[in-house]
Amino acid sequence: MYLSTLEHYIGGAWVQPTSGKTQDVMNPSTNLAIGKLGLASKGDLDKALAAAQKGFETWRKVSSYERGKILKKVADLMRSRADEIAKVLTLEQGKVLAEAKVEVMGSADIIEWFAEEGRRAYGRIIPARADGVRNMVIQEPIGPVAGFSPWNFPVSQAARKIGGALAAGCSIIVKCPEETPGSPIGFVKCFHDAGVPPGVVNLVYGNPAEISEYLIPSPIIRKISFTGSVPVGKHLNSLAALHMKRATMELGGHAPVMIFDDIDADHVATVLHGMKTRNAGQVCVSPTRFFVQDKVYDKFVGKFTDLMKATKVGDGLDPTTKMGPLANPRRIAAMESFMQDAQEKGAKVATGGKRIGNQGNFFEPTVLTDVPKNARILSEEPFGPVAVMLRFKDADAALKEANSLPFGLASYAFTKDGKMAAKVADTLDAGMVSINHFGIALPETPFGGVKDSGFGHEGGIEGLNAYLATKFVSYLG
Ligand code: NAD
To answer: Whose CA is nearest to atom 6 of ligand 1?
Structure first.
């Protein structure tokens, strides 16, 4: 399958960009080109900015009730086109088709949730000091947004940004990932076909640095939302600060998972195996540092290693595949470099550790044990199918170790002890703590990190507030 019409969406029209520059879109299972993507010029970005300004003026006047109705139509269209969009997602990103379908259906839920929540952008009345005065707090859409979304979840990360912005009454220019452009195009088509007015959603692709450096300083743009790596997030946040733009930063993580002696090792290993192999570990909330208590260590690590070893890796379109390839050759290079460094420093490979074949970006599901503290994989985000096992006896010391990195996105624990669960929830320095199951990243719950993992949220009422500006009006009648 070849992705023949990869167009940008500007001012309600599907257009080819004018820079004359293109980039091949690759299938990570074959490393063969499956499409050619045109890249935006500054002229294209000017058009997108003008369209977003006009789109904002139109959309902010549409009632939140009507906006909600249109967004619900978007969600319905997404569900009816989920098979088609998911297939493109798997072809360009690699994840198994069932996961791609879950991503598209979950993204429809995100849009639907925002469709409803937009109607609840409540203000408040503050008791006045003088008779006849009304002190009102009003929530207004902040204005045109620039969104930058990554390649690991090409549809859902764009859905969080577009959904929040549109529900609040904002317009958006979203730069979706150049490596996986087809599925966001299928997604944005649903907005067009549902009747979202021209200029409210604009989709561009190009050189990421050129686009962010052009859009962020523009006086038209009032808010930035970025999902990606910590270094790029820091750079974009400094640009946003320089131009006094509000920002939401969803950056990387290195999620600890605390596994206590009292758990059912077979069950927890099975749950965590599913979480670890999802999207080949290229998930910012993937469990990466497994702190396993002494008495259950051998049983848990044995079972988890068996499951990792037995995972069928292959093309995401093959229905028997359980884990697809890494999304791009950079991830293979990163995995090989982590493995070399850890093994040179004394780590043991319980299973995996190597690239599979030389066609496609396949990497073995990997378990490392006896990893010394100075191994890079214990301080840098792996973003791949690698689990590091760390044995502990004392819970306080392990929690301290879990909190020792600059990251603070997701964290997990498995225990039957209610007191310990409460202690873990209170102690882990992270934006999200999930205990005894994978319970994060739902449309209605806040998703976001602390420390270097960023700030702001993309789900829950917080995800709507991110696109609202508070106005105070005092009226003497
Ligand atoms: P990268 O750091 O070059 O890019 C990360 C993302 O930022 C990409 O989507 C890229 O297009 C975008 N980007 C890069 N420079 C930009 C700029 N100047 N302006 C705007 N956008 C820019 O690395 P990569 O090889 O693409 O991804 C690898 C790393 O990125 C991973 O190790 C992981 O830490 C991180 N990542 C995180 C998430 C997440 O969900 N938080 C998603 C994808 C990648």
So the answer is: 228
| Ligand 1 binding pocket includes 259 (Cβ within 6 Å) | no
Catalytic residue, from 176, 190, 284, 380: name it: 284
Q: Which residues contact 53 (CB under 8 A, 6 or more apart)?
A: 144, 171, 199, 220
Domain 8-251+452-476 has CATH 1.20.1530.20: no
- Look up tokens 């999620």; give the residue: 255
Bridge partners of 254, per DSSP, are: none
- 3-state SS of 446-462 is CCCCCHHHEECCCCHHH
Give the span between the Cα atoms of 193 and 36, in whole angstroms.
24
Determine if ligand 1 sits within 6 Å of the CB of residue 452: no
- Establish whether 176 is a catalytic residue: no
CATH top class, domain 255-442: alpha beta
Whether 137 has a pLDDT exceeding 80, the answer reads yes
* Mean pLDDT rounded to a whole number for the chain: 98
* Alpha-helical regions (H) of 345-417: 395-402
Going by pLDDT thresholds of 50, 70 and 90, the confidence category of residue 5 is confident
Domain ranges of the chain: 8-251+452-476, 255-442
For residues 151 and 440, what is the distance between their CA atoms, to the nearest angstrom? 20
284 noted as active-site residue: yes
- pTM for the full predicted model: 0.97
Residue nearest to atom 32 of ligand 1 (CA): 383
> Are 383 and 374 contacting, i.e. CB atoms less than 8 angstroms apart?
no
Q: Is 229 exposed, middle or buried (0-12, 13-18, 19+ CB in 10 A)?
A: middle
Give the number of residues written for the chain: 477
